[in-house]
Amino acid sequence: MSTRPNPPQKRTSLLPKPKLLTLDPTVLIAQHAHLSGNNPITIGARTVLHPHCRILSGNAAVVVGAGCVIFERARVGMGVGGMGDKQGTDTVLGKNVVVETNGVVEGGEVGDGTVVGVGGVVGRGCVVGRYCTIAASEILPPYTRIPDFTVVYGGGQQRVDRTLEMRPELVESKMGLHEKQLDMFQRLVPNQVAKWM
Amino acid sequence: MAQSFPYTYYACDCFDSNTTTSTKRASQVVAAAAATEDEEQTFDPQNPRSNYALYPLEHLLYCEDCQQIRCPRCVLEETLNWYCPSCLFEVPSSVVKSDGNRCTRNCFNCPICISPLVVNLLENADADQGTPDRHILICPYCHWSTLETGVEFEKHTGVYAQLARIANGGKHIPTSKERDKERERRKELEARQRDSKNPLSPSSETAAVETEAREPPSRDDLFSNLAAFYKSQLEAQTPANPFSPGEMNFSSPSAYSRIMNLYSTNTAKKQKRVKPTPMREAASELEGLVIYDPASDSAAIERIKRDGWNSTLSPTQKLAQTNPHLQFADELRPIPTLLCTKRSKRCRSCRHILSKPESKITSTRYKIKLLALNHIPRLSIRALPPTNPPIPSIPGGSTASQPQPFNYNTLRSGIPTHFLLHLSNPLFDPIRVTLATSSTTPGKVQSRVTILCPQFDVGANTDVWDDALSSSPAPMARRSTINAETGQIEAGKIWDKGRNWTSVAIEVVPGFLADLKNVSGEEDGLDEDDDLLEIPIFVRLEFEADVHAEERGLSDSRGSKAERESREQAFWTVVGAGRIAGR
Ligand SMILES: [Zn+2]
Ligand SMILES: [Zn+2]
Ligand SMILES: [Zn+2]
Ligand SMILES: [Zn+2]
User: Fold this and answer.
1) I want to staple B398 with a disulfide (CB 3.0 to 4.6 A). Which of B18, B46, B392, B458 is the partner?
2) d(C-alpha B481, C-alpha B494), whole Å
3) Which of A115, A131, A132, A159 has the highest number of chain B CBs within 10 A, making it the mutation to test binding with B?
4) Considering the domain boundaries, does residue B328 fall inside one?
5) Which of the residues A137, A138, A151 would you substitute to probe the B interface, choosing the one with the greatest number of B C-beta atoms within 10 Å?
6) B141 chain-A contacts, CB cut-off 8 A
7) CA B487 – CA B508 distance, rounded (Å)
8) B112 to chain A: which residues are within 8 Å by CB?
9) Residues from chain A contacting residue B143 (CB–CB below 8 Å)
């Protein structure tokens, strides 16, 4: 899980991979964000990749939807430069997914508006519904299925966020806040996307 | 005791000393003598009672008047003030008495996961049309919110008061006055119905219809009904007391005994004196009687069938609620934050204050704090690896040159192992220390223990610079060495010494676990933690100290200066040296 790429390798071999990389022109990629792997990576509109986050497609393709935020040291996808086991699972993040600092999404699907908290782990092949919350340091074992509006908290407990489920207007306002945050990042974080185009 | 090795615990003998002092009667003198004899025996860390006597040095206080260690068991605690840990507001004790021990401002804990709730403003789409803002309490961790129980607030402050008026689902909770009025109204209604009807006719359809239409009474309703009923009963049977105020006084002994007479049968018979006539029991719902209704259970079962386990509550969640008889998640109420206290601690025997925090809530400082670690030498143990250089040239060099960390969890049976006992002195006077231990450790696994230098001096805790600035270093005391051929450490000499510390070597031959198994002939001859190598060590200190502060003041007036008295102190400690390896 914490296999970090060797710094020298990162410099030399991983940078020239643009042909498999599909970036929306509005993507914000901060300095020291790290994208690598032999399989295609697709990143949707207005998505923000913070410094030192890692998008790895060594084992399988990675699709990051529109408006996602991947925070520092978070990891999406698996396999460093073709290492690791062969049978990979594609990683698909929906719209407006937030992976907070040190969060890990190792393949599988994550639905729209879901938040993976600080240090949270979504194991390989998990299917996470829409507007779910994986609380800080919660670990979803591989191949877990989580319905919409679920909150995973307190060491593996699950509950349905009935507040959001009952009130669609609250979902809307939550997404509104998310949009504002995206705007703020666009203004504050220097964009290094040209390096990857 | 689960702690990483090595460790030291200090024994407080308050329990034993209490038993000997309390057995003063002539018939028990023999027993007392036996008890004192007990004290002479080696302290047994395996004894179940020892769990209540052993503490790390940091947990202990020290009474300067009794000149003794004080553990949590032999101090008295006094509440200085009450405060809310969430908003850090002090709550006067009168308010605690009247309103209970919970914060009555805006502090609530989540009924699902107990993290603090925050007040959120609901987005108000029609704000320009004059719709007032709505607020909810929401849990930032598990995302529970009062919306799930249908509660919204008008203001973001005074949430406690607002919540007291809103029931789950947004209904209004009647105040006690409104409850009284409603009860009177219904009583009158019932009375009228009874009058108008022929008492012989059994039909009570109208009443039945009415009860069906009403909701079952809430817990608060029943409580207020029962309280009102008791009050009326007390008033009916007691002549009006000119001194008692209008308030009902349940706590008066006679009222209490009469209420309790309801529930006891035998005490009433025993007492010959004519008691006031026992009160009638509550007979109807308006008097606080609730009759068990099996239909509610089947309704609950149906509901679990429909909504699943997720709609029910865990025991922890139920017990955290004001009403612990809730069953379903939609009945949950936010938990008002429990208040905390600041407490002072007094010595149980002389009542002197041992610790007193500053009364300001936001301050974490103490006005008085008599810690044992400022009065009692710290005894610590660590392994002396066999590969150690014989004489460390600088103090502490022995640890620096340690090639690899010693594994305290695999002590080898039968192989002499050396440890260092390190004693550091917090006092400003030099002390003379005598260490004592029995030759074998108590318990099933008997390890042989030898303290190689049981009597030694420890320097005073003087200014750090005194030592460094003194031009001629004091002639170093005799140091023991390891004999290169036999691996033996010279006995009778200290190992090393510094400004206010001295270390001596201790040789331990860990006992055999396997032998014991064979002897007992059972598989489970050993209990958990029998393989612990815990060495009880009796520490005795002698030192000269200034006479007590207040007494010194007296003596100063008499002209004599710096009067010294010799003091003595003794206590048991237990050092955990490690765990004996199984094989
Ligand atoms: Zn004690
Ligand atoms: Zn508070
Ligand atoms: Zn919660
Ligand atoms: Zn005392």
Assistant:
1) B392
2) 9
3) A159
4) yes
5) A151
6) 135, 153
7) 14
8) 159
9) 133, 151, 159, 161, 163-164
Q: Which two tokens stand for residue A148?
A: 């919409």
**B50 DSSP 8-state letter:** G
Give residue B503's domain range.
1-24+38-60+374-388+405-553+562-583
Q: How far is CA B86 from CA B117, B214, B338, B339, in A?
A: 10, 40, 9, 9
- Distance in Å, CA A133 to ligand 3 centroid: 12
Q: Which of B128-132, B250-254, B360-364, B444-448 is most confident?
A: B360-364
String of DSSP letters for B317-352? HHHTSSSTT--BGGG---EEPBPEEEEEEEETTT--
Please check the confidence at residue A29 and state whether its pLDDT lies above 90: yes
Give the number of the ligand closest to the Cα of residue B69.
1
Q: What average pLDDT does range B124-138 have in this prediction? A: 80
Which residue of A114, A163, A177 to mutate against B (max B Cβ within 10 Å)?
A163
The answer to whether residue B258 sits within a structural domain is yes
Q: Decide if A137 touches B, using CB distance below 8 A.
A: no
Question: Is B526 domain-assigned?
Answer: yes
Residue B386, pLDDT score: 59
Provide the 3-class DSSP secondary structure of residue B146. Answer: helix
Please name which of B242, B287, B278 lies closest in space to residue B260, comparing C-alpha atoms: B278
If asked whether residues B183 and B319 sit together in one domain, one would say yes
List B residues 296-355 in contact with A (Cβ-Cβ < 8 A). Answer: 310
CA of B107, nearest ligand number: 2
- Claim to verify: residue B329 and residue B460 sit in the same structural domain: no
- By the 8 A CB rule, do B138 and B175 touch? no
Distance from CA of B374 to the nearest CA of A (A): 41
Nearest-5° angle of CA B381, CA B372, CA B76? 135
Q: CB contact, 8 Å: B112 with chain A?
A: yes
Amino acid occupying residue B456: F
- ipTM comes to 0.84
Alpha carbons B171 and B221: distance in angstroms, whole number: 14
Look up the pTM and report it.
0.73
Q: DSSP class of residue A174?
A: H
The answer to whether A163 contacts B125, with C-beta atoms less than 8 Å apart, is no
**Which residues on chain B are in Cβ contact (under 8 Å) with A120?**
none
User: Which amino acid is located at B46 in the chain?
Assistant: Q
